[in-house]
C-alpha cells in the first residue's frame, strides 16, 4: 500500500507538470494539433537562424566594440554559444508561466519565482533602477528624429536590421570616435532587442517602444532591461495560452523564449551533469548539445500534441527560499531574498 501511495503522489506530480495552463485546451480537435505542430517547426527554423547570427556576430566584433558592450552591461551576451531552440519545449514552458507573476507552475508546491534578478543572471543584462518607458505620443516624433540623425537616415523606415547589422560588423583599425561609439551602442541594443531579447515578428520589425532609453545611451546600464525582457515574455505567455485555449494556430511566438527554458532547466537536478555556477552569465554555461540532452531527459510524453509533455526530472532541493513582494526598481515581480540549492 505504501508503494501504491508513492505511485499515486508521483502521478499527481506528473499530471501537474504535464497539464496545460489553467483553462487551456491542447487537444486541438479536427486536425488543429497538426497545424500547431507545423507552425512550431517553421518558427523554430526561423529563430535558429537568428540566434546563429547573434553568436557569429558576438564572436566577430572587435575588442573596442566588446569593451563598449561591457560598459553598457550586456557583456553576458558575449558568452552565448546557443544557436538552436527547441520550439516545442519553449511552447510547453510558456504554457506553465503565469502571465501575471511570471512564475512557473504558479499556485502549486512546485512554483518557481522568476524575478528581474534571475533574468539578469541568466542572460547577463542590466537590472538597473531606471524603468524603460515607452515614448508618449508627443515624444515619438522626436525619438524617431534622433534615431534618423544617429544613423544618418532621411526617415525612420530607412533604419532596417540590415543597416544595423552593417554598423555592428564594421571593422576598426583605429580608435573609434565618440560619435562612432554612440552609433555602435545604439545599434547594438536595437539589434539584440529585435533579434533576441524581445523579438516581435519574423520580419525583424524594429519597434520604438524602448527607444526613449536609447536617447540616454551613455546611461544604458542604469536601465532595467531585465524587467523589460521579463514583461515581454509574460505577454508572450499570455498570447500563446490564449491561442491554445481558443484552438488557434500558434504561429510566431514573441519574446526571448530561451529565458524561461534556461530558468526551468537551471532548477532541475541533473546530478553530476548539473552545470556549475561559473563567473559568467548562465546563458554562457550552456551549449546546444547540453540543452538538447537536458530537454530529452525531461520528456514524459514525446508524441503528445501539439507539443510533448515535460517534467520528468526533479527540481533541485531548496534549503531556504523567501519571497517578498516588490522590487527596488519598481518591478512588480516577487523577489527572492535568499535561495540555495543542492547540486
From TrEMBL:
Residues 111-256 form the Aminotransferase-like plant mobile domain. It comes from the Eukaryota. This is Os02g0517900 protein. It comes from Oryza sativa subsp. japonica.
